[in-house]
Amino acid sequence: MDLDTIRSRIAEHGLAFRGAFHAEAGEAAGKTLVLVGFVGSENWPAFIASPEAAGGQPNPLDRWSARVVTAIALSLGATPLFPFGGPPFLPFQRWAQQAEPVHPSPLGILIHPDWGLWHAYRGALAFAERIELPPPDLRPSPCDSCAGKPCLTACPVGAFTPAGYDVPTCVSRIAAPTGADCMSDGCLARRACPVGPEYRHIPEQAEFHQQAFLAAQHS
Question: Do residues 133 and 148 both lie within one domain?
């Protein structure tokens, strides 16, 4: 198996290749892990055209991801892994930092030097063999050189603080009429990040994720 074939198969199914690494320890020791996911709004059309998106059932994105990533894995002789379905949950955040140059941002979301905060992981492919990989991309976090940190001051209710993310305050804002902008176009703090603005979610995508976030808080 070679990486070009894997990349092509992932793209054929509407997802983005999100890096790879050789796992040396833990749940996937001895395997090559290839992460798959979303970049900006590039992969949104594949999901929104799916039967899961139109079915009216809970968790459509997770169900679509499970179906599609499993199909990719079966076609390549890999094992599909997912960031959802727990507890327990697999360490996707740690895997991501091994697979590509993402780093924790002040908001807690992993930031990419190109895509900023506008990306996501929908699954991983675990290969038993050690696939040849390119040298790791070791670019530093763009937050290191961001003096103003506008993401920390953009939230109108101050949900992001040095102590962490105040979820109840955030929820009360976006669930109210005054939070219509947060609901329709996405988190104001996230949108304030100067990295990768061209990858921001389109309104339909932003509202989908905000609605899902609210539903999760009330489940």
Answer: no
